[in-house]
Design brief:
The chain is α/β, with parallel strands linked by helices and 262 residues long. Helices cover 34% and strands 9% of the residues.
């Protein structure tokens, strides 16, 4: 028996919406408490988010999202400092979600008084992060600012995951999951409505490929991969690929050996 629990919303940011006081964080925890049956464990978390934290001000204004509608935390990455905050926020979120699945107090993930650093991230429920789109998913051509913001965000996450057990970052260096932006002219004509609205989102084909990759990752994470972490770049349609371990297991989710060690 497999159950998928999804929580999300349009234009959400990690800094605001998934903070301990954020609406999406509470929706996620509530969904877990409602749907995870007694005696059933959570196999893993799949994190498909990030473009909202890279979006530049013009893109946000175009979507009708004003700065004063968010909490005081930075809603997107403007520079290396803010991008590093994204990685720290992600570490805090992983810590809290793992605390929930392990029946621990999520507030134990808060920095001790007088110490700005987060507590060490302990091994726990596996976490898969997908490389995010840049800027708004409503366009196939993100702004230069959004692309730059995404680059700093990714660098910060890659640096931090050296100390994150049971964490996989899936990048698209070697394969791009099909999105509406990849549509041919014929596909655009037959599905023009979705293409216009969801350009940067995964297409139906992309979601099918993603589902296949996630199932392979879950099987790997539930096996002898305990504590392992690294960067996974699957090949076309999930075939072959590269695995760059930062700790633990030398063989990746697809069975591939590392192409390089970080």
């Amino acid at each position: 028996l497999f159950r998928s629990i999804k929580a999300g919303g349009p234009s959400t940011t990690l800094a605001a919406d998934f903070a301990p006081s954020g609406e999406m964080y509470h929706q996620t925890v509530s969904a877990m408490e409602e749907h995870v049956l007694p005696g059933v464990s959570v196999s893993g978390f799949v994190w498909v988010q990030g473009e909202g934290d890279t979006r530049d001000s013009d893109e946000r204004d175009a979507m009708g999202v004003r700065a004063n509608e968010r909490v005081g935390a930075p809603p997107r990455a403007f520079n290396a400092v803010d991008a590093a905050a994204y990685a720290a926020n992600l570490q805090a979120l992983i810590c809290r979600l793992r605390a929930v699945t392990a029946k621990r107090d999520p507030d134990s993930c808060m920095p001790p008084a007088g110490h700005p650093s987060l507590p060490e991230l302990l091994p726990g429920t596996p976490f898969l992060m997908l490389e995010p789109w840049a800027g708004t998913s409503g366009t196939c051509t993100p702004s230069d600012t959004s692309r730059a913001n995404k680059a700093v965000l990714m660098q910060a996450v890659e640096k931090r995951l050296l100390n994150w057990p049971d964490f996989t970052l899936m990048t698209e260096d070697e394969a791009t999951l099909p999105r509406y932006c990849n549509y041919s002219e014929a596909e655009i004509s037959s599905d023009e409505g979705n293409y216009k609205v969801f350009q940067g989102h995964y297409s139906t084909e992309g979601q099918a490929v993603l589902g296949h990759l996630v199932s392979r990752w879950l099987e790997w994470a539930e096996g002898p991969a305990t504590g392992a972490a690294g960067i996974w770049s699957p090949g076309p349609a999930g075939a072959e690929g590269a695995w760059k371990p930062t700790r633990g297991k030398a063989t990746g989710p697809g069975g591939e050996s590392p192409g390089a060690i970080l």
